[in-house]
Design a protein that fits this description.
Two copies of one chain form a homodimer.
Chain A: H1 6-14, H2 16-27, H3 39-55, E1 59-63, E2 70-75, E3 83-89, E4 109-111, E5 114-116, H4 124-141, E6 147-153, H5 163-169, H6 171-174, E7 178-181, E8 193-198, E9 200-209, E10 215-216, H7 227-237, H8 259-266, H9 272-279, H10 292-298, E11 301-310, E12 319-320, E13 323-332, H11 338-351, E14 358-367, E15 370-371, H12 377-390, E16 395-398, H13 404-413, E17 417-419, E18 435-437, H14 438-456
Parallel strand pairs in A: 3-6, 3-7, 7-17, 8-16
Antiparallel strand pairs in A: 1-2, 2-6, 4-5, 5-18, 8-15, 9-13, 9-14, 10-12, 11-13
Helix pairs in contact in A: 1-4, 1-14, 2-4, 4-14, 5-13, 12-14
């Protein structure tokens, strides 16, 4: 059984209140990268992170990018030891619909052993696990067993559009022997795990233009194509009745799972009915021929994330609206090419445009899927660290989420990576009432504290 | 050529500035019946109307209903002459999207010979034509040639849900020999017209419920049915590719036009391409096999008036939303039964619900279509009055709009009705930048002034 050094463990335990206070302070900064109105908050969050890294002994600075800045800190006082790049993000998802939060999204509130707030686990709390772990080493021993370079970015929630170019610009500064990414969840509270695959991500915004102004549905009903109905037809046509995407070429590069992979996934404790009940839906639904976990980790999706058009207030308003708009995104797997998928879906949408309307499609995002090695010494070290933090050997899993920087590290730095995150599947990330279980938060701090020792010896 | 009494004509001409000032004052009251936040404004508007009717010599009072009150005024000083019921409405459509108005919606602004503002023509300006006409008679001659009962309601824009029960309650007070409704438009500036058919109207609100909270589209993508996509499938399935409603029984009671009716409609000066250009669309579109005017006046529609669900802000948010909602309405013709249509469409929507979501449908509205006589003496009188106001014999037309009270007068009072309105098809009613051409407004005042004399002699 891997355990953690006694003094470090004691330090982590006695500072729990301080960790919570610090996480509350981070949550209080509404660093929403999707909303230009929060640009100032995003920058302020980065500046505070730089100050914080300095306070624990890192040589830290803000690195400008073509978008929101990076918070960068390094400590290189362990000659001969490996240099570990630690990655996280300080930006958060929008908080709306805010009225569904039980406590305000940008205030950390502790209830029932969990801390609630936007960014609690995605990813401020998980960034803080590393700052706390570094601090524990520095205050307890006066140094770290490894060299560290901490890179915390501010655009992960909008697809990290400027991260890869920043990586290229600061390549020499940022280069390391291995990257550690803490922005994922474990399989469940009882099943610690390490994530070895992430899906890719691309986006579209589809606007269907009808009459120049909203038109009276009596005076013009029967004459005008309805933009909402046109958009509905376009969206409905993107999948068949079995949930399979109909766009020709969409599945190019999607690997079929082999029997052993399917068996490994089937062995995990996952109950469709219980999951459906927890999510509040009558049943789980998806592409035919694959189990829920297979679909979530290893099949691509095409998903409508938002739609609006016409009258949305109380009561009725009898109009044919001048436009309707939908936000759509895809999660990619295997070797699906983001640029190719963006293009073919855009063409399919344009080709599906009915008569009488004008359709416009914007697309964005360039995040491919990535699969990591399970056998690299760093992955083995991460397994031992997690055992120290949570008392059990972790299993390897996939995630349905996307972490653009994982692809960027692959493409620019070409270094091995380990994804070690400790969120839970029910953390409501990207949704109202996001939370981080304190047991996971504190266990994560112990895990990261142990991880640095394990990586020094890997 | 029918003309108007010289003194009356002079009165109408010299008071044009006062009419404009008064219309601006009415526009300034945001009597939006669809929005509960404006309930106070709606009532205030009714009270002001009652005061105004008293000031021109009517015996006026506010009549309570189960919803917004009626403004009622009568003058019964012409024994032996017919009693004419004048109908209009003081409530207005919501003004959103307010950012698309060139001047504030609840301020009347005159530009290029038109007055802009919510309710300018629908229906405050047209109600004011009657008040001005009554005033012209009273100030010029000291009396009216007919008995009048003025009923101005406050819920027309939400489908007049309480008008029919109020009519029944106040039947003796309101009863008259003929009803005059001024809430319609002429065919065009050059083609004065009288409307002899209106379509019916019913509403649905469809909500598709998915997960209890918005769910992360990575962590749950591939597992959950997407409420937006489910709603899109439901909407797309309501019509076939030729624009025909697929709900079984929807067309029950829809009369086929005969050759002479089609010929009469085809003779009207209507240019599809010009109409499309004015509306800002590539082409006019609708049910196959019928001309645009046939579709608009004499075919039913099923139209999506609004939709929303998921993320609607700037940028992207990768969620599977917890719900999506659409507002749908139908225009009815012939003997389509509102209650029957509501029920069969609701059943079709529920039957179309895909797996993994829960679908809820609310419905409202009970307005059947109505066809009026062209041969009744009152219709002939209206034709002569319009000739006095606009210098040409009017043609008979239909309208694609719905006026619930026309059906209620039919059902409760069982009296002949004349629809005489003077809006123009491009008035942007129910849309941003609603306007009333001053030439139509002032011509309408002359028309109504002449109408009372014509009805006295009809």
């Amino acid at each position: 059984m891997t355990t953690i050094d006694h003094d470090l463990a004691a330090y982590c335990t006695t500072h729990r209140d301080a960790y919570l206070d610090e996480l509350k302070a981070w949550i209080a900064i509404p660093s929403v990268s999707a909303d230009p109105a929060h640009r100032g908050d995003v920058r302020a969050c980065c500046e505070r992170l730089v100050e914080r890294m300095r306070s624990i002994g890192l040589d830290a600075k803000l690195l400008e990018t073509d978008g929101n800045p990076l918070a960068f800190g390094e400590w290189l006082g362990a000659p001969g030891a490996p240099t570990v790049l630690i990655y996280g993000h300080y930006d958060v998802q929008p908080a709306d619909p805010t009225e569904l939060w039980e406590t305000p999204p940008f205030e950390g509130h502790v209830r029932n052993g969990k801390i609630f707030g936007r960014g609690a686990v995605d990813d401020k709390g998980q960034v803080l696990m590393h700052l706390a772990a570094i601090e524990a080493h520095m205050r307890t021993r006066g140094n770290l067993p490894i060299n560290v370079k901490v890179v915390i970015e501010g655009e992960e929630e909008i697809g990290s559009p400027n991260f890869e170019s920043a990586l290229a610009r600061y390549r020499d500064l940022i280069h390391a022997d291995v990257a550690v990414i803490s922005d994922t969840a474990v399989f469940s509270e009882d099943v610690p795990s390490l994530t070895t695959s992430v899906r890719g991500l691309v986006h579209w915004e589809v606007t269907v233009h009808g009459p120049a102004d909203d038109a009276h549905s009596g005076y013009y009903g029967g004459i005008l194509a309805n933009p909402i109905e046109a958009l509905a037809r376009i969206i409905a046509g993107l999948k068949d009745a079995q949930g399979r995407v109909t766009v020709p070429g969409f599945y190019d590069g999607v690997p079929e799972l082999d029997a052993s992979e399917r068996k490994e996934i089937a062995a995990l404790p996952y109950d469709d009915a219980r999951e459906a009940a927890q999510l509040g839906v009558p049943e789980l639904v998806g592409e035919a021929g694959h189990s829920a976990l297979e679909r979530n980790w290893f099949r691509p999706t095409l998903e409508c994330n938002g739609i609006y058009g016409g009258y949305q207030g109380p009561g009725a308003k009898t109009i044919i609206p001048s436009f309707a708009r939908a936000k759509i995104s895809a999660r990619l797997v295997g070797s699906q090419e983001p640029a190719h998928v963006r293009e073919i879906v855009m063409q399919a949408i344009l080709a599906a445009a009915p008569r009488g309307v004008r359709v416009e499609v914007d697309s964005a995002g360039d995040v491919p899927a990535v699969v990591l090695s399970r056998d690299h010494p760093a992955a083995q070290a991460a397994g031992r660290a997690m055992q120290a933090g949570f008392g059990a050997v972790p299993v390897f899993i996939g995630t349905g989420g996307s972490i653009g920087p994982v692809a960027s590290f692959d493409r620019v730095l070409k270094i091995p990576q380990v994804m070690i995150g400790v969120g839970l599947p029910d953390d409501h990330i990207h949704a109202p009432n996001e939370k981080f279980d304190l047991s996971q938060f504190f266990g994560g701090i112990v895990t990261m504290t142990a991880l640095y020792d394990e990586l020094a010896n890997a």
